[in-house]
Every structure is written in C-alpha cells, then in structure tokens.
Amino acid sequence: MDLAGIVMAAGEGKRMRSRIPKPLHSICGKEMVRYPVELLKASGAERVVVVVSPDNRVAIEGVLGGSVEYVVQERPNGTGGAVASCTELLNARVDDVLVIGADTALVTPESIATLLEEHVDTGAVMSLLTAPNDGAPDLGRVVVSKGMVSRIVEAADAAGTRADEAPLVNAGVYCFQTKWLQRSLRKISPRPSGEIYLTDLARTGSRGGDMVLATLVTEMDEVLGINNRSQLATAEAVMRDRIREQWLLAGVTMTDPSSVYIDADVTIGMDSVILPNTMISGRTSIGENCEIGPNSVIRDSTIGDNCRVTSSALEEAVMEDHTDIGPFSHLRPGAYLESGVHIGNYVEVKESRFKAGAVMGHFGYAGDATIGERVNIGAGMITCNYDGKDKHRTVVEDDAFIGCDTMLVAPVTVGEGSITGAGAVVTKDIPPARLAVGVPATIRRNLE
After folding, report:
1. Do residues 213 and 233 both lie within one domain?
2. The domain boundary residue, chosen from 201, 223, 245
3. Which domain holds residue 13?
4. Are residue 305 and residue 330 in the same domain, yes or no?
5. What span, in angstroms and rounded, lies between the C-alpha atoms of 408 and 360?
6. Does one domain contain both 212 and 297?
7. E strands within 229-284?
C-alpha cells in the first residue's frame, strides 16, 4: 500500500484558553501532535505532512523539526481547506492518504490497521473510524444507509438527527483514495462561515455511487476529542492507564499502579519495581531489577540495572549499574554516578561525577566536582563552588577520605589517598597521601 499521511494542526484551539498552540499541549509528557505523527509513520506512511497555521508554524516546527513536511494553511477555512492545501502531496504518486487531526492522540495502531485493511479490501474511496453513538456532544454523527455511510453531520448541526438514523459518531480519522480525494475536494461548497468541511466528502461519495466505509474503533476511548483543559485531563488519564498496563504486561511490578505516573517516552526494564507515589517523566530510561520509590520523582534520567532510588529526585542525571540513592536526596542536571556508588540521605549533587565505589552517606553538597574511585565523604561535606561570580571545580582523587563538615573551597584538588580532618576548610590543593586539618586547613603529615 503506497500511503501518505496528513496531520491537521492549524486549528486555533480557542477553547484551550492558552497562549500555547493546542497541538503542543502535552499528554503524558509528549506534545499532542507527536502522537498522530508517530502513528502515521508506524502505519506505513512514507510521507507525513503537517498542516500548520502562520501563527503556530514556528512552534510546531520547533518540536517536530525535520521529521515531517510542512504546509501552511494561510487562512482558517476548515478541515477541507487544510487537506486541499496539501496540493503537492495530492499530486504525487500516492495511492491513499490517511488524514488525522493533531488532537487525536488516543487512536490506537490496531484501529488504524483495521481501517487500512478494510479500506483496501473493499475498494472504498473514503473510509473513516467511527464508534457507537453515545450522545457525545462534540462528535459528528455518521448517517448510515444500507450499511454504508451516506453523510456526516457536524456536531453543531446534529440536534435534529435521530439516533437510529445516525448510529455512529465520527472519530476524525479518514483514509482516502488520493485521486478521488483530489477530484472531490473541488466539489465541496464552503459553508456560510467560509469553512470547507472534510466531512462533506461523505455525501459526495455516497451521491456519486462510491463506497464510503465506516470502521469501528477498537476502544471507545479512542474517539475522545481534546478541545479544552478538562478533555485534556481526561485524555491524560486514559493514556496513563495504557502506559501502566503496557509496563505491567512487560514484567514491571507496581504495588499501587494508580499512584504511579509514567510518561510516554519512558522505558523500564524487566523485574523492576515501581513503588507508590512515584513520577517518572521525560525520556527517562530505567534498567532491569531496579527499585524506584516510594515518593520519587525522576525526569530525563538514565538508571542502569540493579539500582535503587528511595524517596529521592533525579533530573537529567545518570546512575550506572549497582548504584543507590536516598532517602531524601537530589541528583540535579549533570550528576553522574558510576557503578557501585552509594549516595545516602539528604545529599545534593550537581554537575558532578562520582567514580566507581565512591560513598557519600549523608548530609552534603557536591557541585561541579569530580569524586574519585573509592572516596569516602563524611557527613556535612560541602564543595564551595561559587564565589559570587563564577563556578569553580573541585577534584577529589582516588581513595581520599573527606572528614565530616569539610569545606572544599574551589578551585581545589585533594590528592590521591589524602585525608581531611573534621571541620577542615580546604582552600589550597592537598598533595597525595597527606593529612590536612584546621581552618584554614594546613598539611600536618605524610600518610605514607
């Protein structure tokens, strides 16, 4: 099947009451417009065109980049106008075109596969996803005659439409034979508002004796529209349930699934356990056999196998295999824990690398630092990395021992195997294998 895709993303979205374009509102950490784009590509569309408006073009291109083509719908003249603006695509040698709205985030690949299969098998000129009519006020009604679609009534015009006459509602996902679509778009008359409705093509096909086919969605949730913040919250809840179910079936344990929030781009390894009140967001990756939570917040971070994050926060951080942190600690952007590192409670790490086997058990701050292998950091250690104007680095070399309440005033280096006494304020470099004590710290003896 030679297939192309169109995503209609030029709508004004006034009911969202937002300065953010509606297609860029997020559902489970992913911009709404990314769902139909990824769905079209997964369904076999070799070209995907996103129809944007002059006002939202820059913002949408900033999210999708060069992964799709763009067409600008210069004036808001409806869904038919949006598709008609894709003249280059419609003139191309493409057998069929799959059209979907940017706010149709809940449609499943299974429903699209069924739609495409039935569209090809029946030779329909137009096929659309539908669901049983349950009176949803925002959805157009699909009027059926002799088993085929005869017309689609827009939601705003559906007040006088009988339920037995229109047993289905329109999900807003269509597949067209390209040549027929190109010819038929020219036949649609604008409404008094000046808008051209894509749904009017159903009447055009039916009157011309062509087959217009209705395909039922796999799940009723797929037809939920997103026009305001309330509907956005409903879609978020549906998607979160799907994501949790996906990971439960993939071998991840959640002791209280309803209290766990996992974004769409997160990955989790088999036999990991996610404990209650935990949020995992962005492009986070968690390995196998980990324990995350309770009460943990993780964003855009990478966690290896056999790790534990207890009641702690991670943002743009990395934990290699066999590391643990918490409770009540914070890895800020740029924190990197190599294999075997232990970070205990009430520790903050920023733009710092802890090398293999380093330990910082409790109470302290490491900022802009390199901590060597097997270093032991006592309670209360602070890297004084900011002088009021610039940030400076601290280096603690392998096998050093940092005593409780040590202040490391950057830029400074603690040599390999050196020791600082409790309460030391280190303002100058300490050579390897030396003891430094006092305020300011002085070197007392060689440890070798």
Report:
1. no
2. 223
3. 3-223
4. yes
5. 15
6. no
7. 253-254, 260-262, 267-268, 273-274, 278-281
Angle, helix 57-64 to helix 34-42, in steps of 10 degrees: 50
Same domain, 7 and 121: yes
Question: Domain containing 298 — which CATH number?
Answer: 2.160.10.10
Q: Are residues 187 and 277 in the same domain?
A: no
Judge if 398 and 298 occupy the same domain.
yes
How far does CA 138 lie from the centroid of its chain? Answer: 26
β-bridge partners, 369? 394
Q: Do residues 295 and 277 lie in contact, with contact meaning Cβ atoms separated by under 8 Å?
A: yes
334 within 8 A of 348, measured Cβ to Cβ = no
Identity of the amino acid at 445: R
Per annotation, catalytic residue among 119, 342, 362, 392: 362
- pTM beyond 0.70, yes or no: yes
Claim to verify: residue 152 and residue 280 sit in the same structural domain: no
pLDDT tens for the chain, 448 residues: list them.
699 999 999 988 899 999 999 999 999 999 999 999 999 999 999 999 999 999 999 999 999 999 999 999 999 899 999 999 998 888 888 999 999 999 999 999 999 999 999 999 999 999 999 999 876 777 888 988 888 899 988 877 766 666 666 788 899 999 999 999 999 999 898 988 888 999 999 999 999 899 999 999 988 899 988 999 999 999 999 999 999 999 999 999 999 999 999 999 999 999 999 999 999 999 999 999 999 999 999 999 999 999 999 999 999 999 999 999 999 999 999 999 999 999 999 999 999 999 999 999 999 999 999 999 999 999 999 999 998 899 999 999 999 999 999 999 999 999 999 999 999 999 999 999 999 999 999 998 776 6
Domain end marker among 223, 245, 273:
223
Give the C-alpha separation, 314 to 311, whole Å. Answer: 10
Based on the fold, state whether residues 339 and 208 are members of the same structural domain: no
Asked about 362 being catalytic, the answer comes back as: yes
Domain count, the chain: 2
- CATH number at 172 reads 3.90.550.10
Question: Which residues are CB-neighbours of 71 under 8 A, at least 6 positions away?
Answer: 49, 50, 51, 52, 85, 86, 88, 89
Q: How far apart are CA 167 and CA 153, in angstroms?
A: 12
Q: Is the peptide bond before 21 cis (omega within 30 degrees of 0)?
A: no
Two structure tokens written together for 192: 């008094």
DSSP count for the chain of H helices, then E strands: 8, 40
